[in-house]
Amino acid sequence: MAAAAPADAKAEAAKVDLLEDDDEFEEFEIDQEWDDKEDGDEAIQQWEDDWDDDDVNDDFSLQLRKELEECNTQKI
Amino acid sequence: MAAYLSMGEAHRRIADYLSRVADSVSSSDGAALASLLAVSSAQATTPLSDALSAFPDFPRLAADRYPHLSDLLPPLLRAIHSHSLRRFADAYSSFEKAANAFLQEFRNWETPWAMEAMHTVALEIRLLAEKADRELATSGKNPDKLQAAGSFLMKVFGALAVKGPKRIGALYVTCQLFKIYFRLGTVHLCRSVIRSIETARNFDFEDFPVKDKVTYMYYTGRLEVFNENFLVADQKLTYALVHCNPQYGSNLRIILKFLIPVKLSIGVLPRITLLERYNLLEYADVVTSLKRGDLRLLRQALERHEDQFLKSGVYLVLEKLELQVYQRLVKKIHIIQRQKEPAKAHQIKLEVVVKALKWLEIDMDVDEVECIMACLIYKNLIKGYFAHKSKVLVLSKQDPFPKLNGKPV
Prior knowledge:
The structure holds two protein chains of two kinds.
Chain A: H1 4-18, H2 41-44, E1 47-48, H3 59-75
Chain B: H1 7-26, H2 30-37, H3 47-54, H4 58-65, H5 73-84, H6 88-108, H7 115-138, H8 145-160, H9 170-184, H10 190-198, H11 210-226, H12 230-243, H13 249-265, E1 269-270, H14 272-277, H15 284-292, H16 295-304, H17 306-312, H18 315-319, H19 322-340, E2 347-349, H20 350-359, H21 366-378, E3 384-387, E4 392-395
Antiparallel strand pairs in B: 2-4, 3-4
Helix pairs in contact in B: 1-2, 1-3, 2-7, 4-5, 5-6, 6-7, 6-8, 7-8, 7-9, 8-9, 9-10, 9-11, 11-12, 11-13, 12-13, 15-16, 15-19
């Protein structure tokens, strides 16, 4: 009996949880319009598509190099 | 408060409200009518709600005074009354009756003067249904009002998505339907409304109000993410981002929440400043893992934010970034080899990849690594072939690591 109560509560919570969409879009005011001048420059400049460079001097690459060298010397 | 209200005063307040509704209808004042119909946003106690408590015979008063609005006004007053008493399921049922009566009138009006009021009804019925369902669920009853609100809004959609001047209001109702379907987890129901919006020959999508276009693109963009159509998702979510009112920071943030995984999957990275500004730092390690070729970091990031990513439905998208991270790792191995021994740089021993993965705490044998490399070649993330016997990956001399350049893997 004692165990039944928390299980019920849990099922209840799950049921209520079904009615959630955490990513629901906030309502714009019904009579609202705004100046739509495609001012997305700022948003567009926030992306990099040319990041895939040949630079291997970051910490991660330096450690990788060390690892690979160690495994070479081990073989000899 | 209500106890001190005289019957005469209560009667006067109710009559005043009724006459304002009737006047806004007879003078075709859409904005005034809209504000009178906003039931769920009203305070718990208002002069009107006090009056309704003090004068229980209000439905008859309404029906007697305005017989031509007798389907609309009595249930509307009942909805306002129940809502002020926080009896939301009752409020919903009455409001749905009033909403049906209103829709009937709206259909008969030739011009779209009452569009703002129709939209208010569409919003209110959804918000009331949500409150009603929460109440029903906590008292152990079946929460079915939101679904009912969806059925009502489909009728509204049918009345608007026709040839003529009312069509401009159809996208707003579509967005209310999306919110319901996403909440109920019945997103497949979006399909028929989308088809109706997107195949219209005599109505240009661009002519809809910008606020509705932005909301529509956000939701259809999310659907494309679920369907793994990343190029279309990118278009739609970027449209939403670019056109969104910059004052709605929370909306910009949730657009980015979906746009970022989409961009990552086509090889485009967000700058860290963007993640910081919109508090989306759960993506920071994912981005770093792609830049480094750090598989361990990617797996850690997915594990750490698993609940969050699963909940918004982007987990699978992020998991698929693994191939890009492998590509980056092999590329780094290649560059390091080239610096040391340029002549042999194009031959990568699978054993070396195994070692690198071991360093990253990923336990794989040569056969498994071969399998992954084969996958990278198949997906055109690596150009080259295997020397199977000697367990060596031979890279193409030309462009061995093709960039995605905005194409999905």
